[in-house]
Design brief:
This protein is an alpha/beta fold. It contains nine helices and twelve strands. 36% of the residues lie in helices and 20% in strands.
């Protein structure tokens, strides 16, 4: 049989993008799995996304990741969407099936995999989320679609918080409530899972934590952070002090990359290699 010299191509479109380490993580996983895939990190400016998406078809890319500023604009440029992406209104991954582009949002799926890997099931649970931006949107919709009973959205901007709570109530089977973030807001006591989905604590601001009443965090809660650099956040340290089980944002980032890996290759991702690679890139 003739030898195949053509690699499968995937990558990421974003701007700024130069410091995004996802490619190193995915390439390490392809090497470990013995797959002839290449992940290319590409700077694509906002107005050029339609041409870049068309290029995926023309150049037979297997798929692509999308990051700032393309996650929302890309929704209109694919042929099909997953049900979650349809509700979230943003995608971070595309699979090219013979010229038909299918888009999904795997930020929430990565988060959920971090929970299930720790033996936590969201069904019937009350999930309280700090923030109402892209990460909060993906996490809340994914939890709601996987059976969470109630989603509380705590956010400073009332408009953004209410829009997200209304979206979850109207488009998913879960109930949702907006809680205004004034001063040191208390976490509702019915909360089973608490998530920081704000950028507070992200490097270099590692000495910052979300302004909440930490004494309202109890030992019965599972407390999660989306911050992955450094993943040992003050937010999680405060929760840990109060006896809560904690889940770090690095797992979510790796798991999101693992879900994308499987969507493109059909193969289970070598999570350990991906985690170790990212830790090295972040000097952890
Ligand atoms: P957005 O800018 O879309 O949203 C940020 C949200 O945080 C907004 O709701 C904003 O409130 C709130 N916020 C910002 N600063 C503060 C503050 N000082 N106090 C209280 N609330 C605040 O960001 P994203 O949702 O895209 O990203 C959030 C974080 O999630 C980032 O750090 C990102 O790196 C991380 N992330 C991690 C992932 C992972 O895999 N681990 C995946 C995706 C994101 P308001 O509406 O009032 O402005």
């Amino acid at each position: 049989m003739a030898k195949n010299y053509r690699s499968q191509l995937v990558g990421v479109f974003g701007n700024p993008i130069d410091e995004n380490p996802t490619g190193v993580m995915e390439e390490a996983a392809f090497a470990k799995a013995g797959l002839d895939f290449r992940y290319i990190t590409m700077k694509v400016e906002k107005g050029n996304l339609p041409a870049a998406m068309q290029a995926l078809r023309v150049m037979n890319f297997r798929g692509i990741n999308l990051t700032i500023p393309h996650k929302v604009d890309a929704v209109k440029l694919v042929d099909e969407l997953s049900p979650e992406a349809e509700i979230i209104g943003a995608i971070n991954v595309v699979v090219n099936n013979n010229g038909r582009l299918w888009g999904d949002n795997t930020d929430g799926k990565g988060f959920l995999k971090s929970l299930t890997d720790s033996g936590i099931d969201v069904s019937g649970k009350t999930v309280t989320i700090l923030g109402a931006g892209g990460a909060a949107r993906a996490i809340s919709v994914e939890c709601a679609m996987k059976g969470a009973a109630k989603i509380n959205i705590i956010n400073a901007s009332e408009e953004r918080g209410k829009v997200l709570a209304d979206l979850v109530s109207s488009k998913t089977p879960a109930k949702a409530e907006y809680i205004q973030w004034i001063g040191k807001v208390s976490i509702p006591e019915q909360t089973d899972i608490l998530v920081n989905a704000t950028p507070v604590g992200l490097y270099p601001n590692v000495d910052k934590k979300p302004e909440i009443n930490y004494d309202s965090v109890t030992a019965s809660m599972i407390v999660c952070d989306v911050i992955f650099n450094d993943p040992n956040t003050l937010f999680l340290a405060e929760a840990d002090k109060r006896g809560a089980k904690t889940i770090r944002g690095l797992g979510m980032l790796v798991n999101q990359g693992a879900v994308n890996f499987t969507l493109w290759t059909g193969v289970e991702a070598p999570i350990d290699v991906m985690t170790e690679t990212l830790k090295k890139e972040f000097n952890l």
